[in-house]
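Hi, here's the filled form for the chain we discussed.

Project: internal
Contact: R.S.
Residues: 546
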Amino acid sequence: MIFRGMKRLKNISEKDGKINSGNISELLNHEILTPEQVKDIRVSSVLEENLRFLQDLLGHNKDVIIRRILIGTSPRIPSALIYIEGLADKAILNNNIMKSLMIEIPEESCGSDPLYLREYLLKTALTISNLKNTRQMNEIAINILSGDVVLLVEGVDDAVIINIRGHKEKAISEPESEILVRGPREGFTETLETNISLIRRKLKSPNLSFDHMLIGKITLTEVSVVYLKGLASPDLVEEVKQRLQRIKIDGILESGYLEEFIEDNPYSPFPQMHHTERPDRIVAGLLEGRVAIMTDGTPFVLIVPVEITSFLTSPEDYYERYYLGTLILWVRYISFGVSLLLPSFYIAITTFHQEMIPTRLLISIASYRQGLPFSTLLEALLMELTFEVLREAGTRLPRAVGQAVSIVGALVIGQAAVQAGIVSPLMVIIVAFTGIASFTNPSYNLGITMRFLRFPLMFLAGMLGLFGVMFGIVMIHIHLAQIRSFGLPYLASLSPLHWSDLKDVLVRGPWWSMDTRPWELGERNRRRQIPGLKPSPPRADKAGGN
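And the returned structure, exactly as it came back:
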């Protein structure tokens, strides 16, 4: 009997993918309902039918509030306000909506003409800026679950959706994962509307576009595709939308879900899109012709396409003088190489290529290693794993405690390991300098990749020496040459080589020289400023005035 009932419900939902108000309660007990299944159900002119359907659809939950009211005085028209407790702003609901509907509507506005009453409610009675009406039940349900208030009136065959979302949100503050010495101090929050306003404040252009969509069969997470018309390639924008629309999943809780679904090479350890909490970084990407993907519920915004050099730059590089930005950029590049290769080179040289070490240094290394129980490879692996454990512990603990644990733990364990004769002092220096160099990377996701690749390079160095290290480097470069980020080569500006882009890659060129957008992105509008903006001192004959 139960099996036949389940089979009948399955046939109801699979027949045409739709349901009606007659089988809504029965279907909800056995299947997960999607908005597409009820999109053909329209609002009835009978108030009780609408309320019964919404109660069955939203569930008889305590936080789903249905406030029945009477509009006008003669005749008194039955109506209802539906909202979710805690999501709607109750102060605005009480002072601006219920007061207007129950007290301030004149008698002549509540006639027998439903069309006239609807127009009066939309244009006169409700003193709220963001209003719209709809006849689709699925749209009503989505808006209620998002925090809006819905007004249903007896005799009117559509609903008024009132946007007074009032749930608590985090205040705008400085991003903790991307701290700058000089630059804006504001970061994205978990609310999509707030994040959109932060971009609007910095980019006051009518060409700025936000294309919204809902992803997640159950969570119905709002996702916005952001781009500048005239700068972003239409093919790129369409590709981003198509990849997002292909995602069919129960829920999206963070932008990392989207990242794994839409990246070009899911098996690559290298990140193929940038995530950031900084509005200025997103605006800078949009001005270059890139596309941003904003997700409700997270402060991290994705930006595509990207190349590997973009992970090594920081917004602060462009806020300081260009020669200082270039110096810091090269320090970052050198630290990037050190964090990836220093332990491997040390293992390879001390194990296979001792002739490359100066004699005095070789004698010192040999004396330190005398009596140690482990090989150089095992010694490096032990210290690297210990350092990674301390780093992870410092990240997960509360900030005040975590910093103390990571610093004191590294000092105590390193000193104890040397005194116990487990590792050499030089190995502690190598591992510590490698860890410090990795902290200069401004992108957390690329830093994790470097930490991951460090271990296979250490194994290659321990087995084959420098030949193994060079083999690993060649394989990494071959892999990088194969990666694409939404069609953009991962080594763009370097391979294929574009000389005009090197002033924004190898050096941080002065702003008056960076008059063109990146070659691979700015094909529709390559020039971003007029040429000849280089400042020059005043002429001698004009310096003294008249």
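Let me know if anything looks off before we file it.
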